[in-house]
Design a protein that fits this description.
alpha+beta, Multidrug-efflux Transporter Regulator, Chain: A, Domain 2, three-stranded antiparallel β-sheet, 4 helices, globular
Amino acid sequence: MTAPRSHNNEISHINLLTIQEVATWAKVSTKTVYRWIANKKLPAIRLGSRTYRISEHDLLEYLKNAGYYALVD
């Protein structure tokens, strides 16, 4: 049997953030982050009933588009 080959793909380079990490970075409450997700403003990966992960790239794009330039630079 041969060993599985490792694939160097984009998934291994995605930095996923928790709701708390996003809230701290964006200087908002966790409730606000949940609201952004519920309103489809911020894409998130749902892992459980209230467990989400947000890619750092998606967060940066959202903050740029929403005018939070000081938090992105």
